Amino acid sequence: MAEWFQKVYGYISGPMGMGWVTFAVYVIIGWVACIGLGRLQRRIDHTRREQRQIFTLLLKAAKGIIWALVLVQGLRSVGVDVVSILGAAGVAGVAIGFASQTALSNLISGAFVVSERSFRMGDYIQVGGEEGTVESINLLSVYLRRPDNTLVRVPCEMLIKTPVRNLTGAELRRIDLDIGVDYSSDLTEVKEIIMSVITERPLLMNEPAPTVTFSGFGDSSLNLHIGAWCKTDVYHAVRYEFATALLAAFAERGINIPFPVRAFTKYQPGSNA
User: Fold this and answer.
1) What pLDDT shows up at residue 11?
2) Average pLDDT for residues 195-201, to the nearest whole number?
3) Confidence band (pLDDT; 50, 70, 90) for 1?
4) Which CATH class is domain 172-253?
5) pLDDT in tens, 151-192
């Protein structure tokens, strides 16, 4: 047993053994540094969205640099020729680069996405048939949390090539409603009813001014378009309340909202109908 301990001690105290000890020390230092960056990131989560977005990317880059330095210094400590490995990696990188043009395109697109700041973490966006709340912004992709709580990964290349609609990028958002009233209705009276309903809703804004415009003659109705503004964070609740109040006001004043009527011909045996 003593002989075995002596052999282990001799190996550890030798050049190769000390190299592995140094390698372990580098790994521990890198691990502790990343833990510290993780704690810093949790503090950043309480800052403004613009700052959080930039700091998150910087912290991810810092973690990558730390582990790259740990790997290089650790391999050098155990006698590995890092220069030769990097040279071979450079040649392999060229070959991989040709095979990974999509990843490179996403990387370049990600740089544009981050620099443009057309949306931020926490915004609700629509892109390429997908929509959701922006949960994280990376150089290769953006993760969206959909309303059903599923997570969608959207490549940054799509965000550059496809129009992106940011539904929560501004403080105010307009509620657009299309409604039709009976041909016998007085449009002046209808407009007054609509404007009074808007005025009575405390969460609807008077500035920008709401609008009621005539949009056309329908098959069975006079069509109107209503635009009223509210705070973005209460959009859906206010939209529902506004529509409910309009229906109640129209019913109270005897304004009819017609629906298309289709005439059906009774089938007669022997006919071509």
Assistant:
1) 46
2) 94
3) low
4) alpha beta
5) 999 998 899 889 999 999 889 999 999 999 999 999 999 999
pLDDT at 9: 46
Report the percent of the chain where pLDDT is more than 90: 41
- Tokens linked to 109: 């697109």
77-86: Cβ within 8 A, 24+ apart: 77/19, 77/20, 77/22, 77/23, 77/26, 78/16, 78/19, 78/20, 78/22, 78/23, 79/15, 79/16, 79/19
Domain coordinates of the chain in residue numbers? 11-99, 105-166, 172-253
* Strand stretches in the chain, DSSP E: 124-127, 130-137, 141-145, 151-155, 164-166, 172-181, 211-217, 222-231
Spacing of C-alpha 167 from chain mean position: 10
pTM of the model: 0.60
Q: Measuring CA to CA, which residue among 193, 204, 266, 272 is closest to residue 239?
A: 204
CA distance 178 to 212: 10
- The helix (H) or strand (E) run that includes residue 161 is helix 156-161
Structure tokens at 168: 């929560």
CATH of 105-166, one of 1.10.10.10, 2.30.30.60, 3.10.400.10, 3.40.50.150: 2.30.30.60
Under a CB-based contact definition with an 8 Å cutoff, are residues 221 and 183 in contact?
yes
pLDDT of residue 201: 92
Give the burial class of 177: count Cβ atoms within 10 A of its Cβ; 0-12 exposed, 13-18 middle, 19 or more buried. Answer: middle
d(Cα 251, Cα 243) in Å, to the nearest integer?
12
Per-residue tokens: 56: 């998150």
Quote the CA–CA distance of 241 and 234 in Å, as a whole number.
Answer: 11
Residue 31 has pLDDT above 60, yes or no: yes
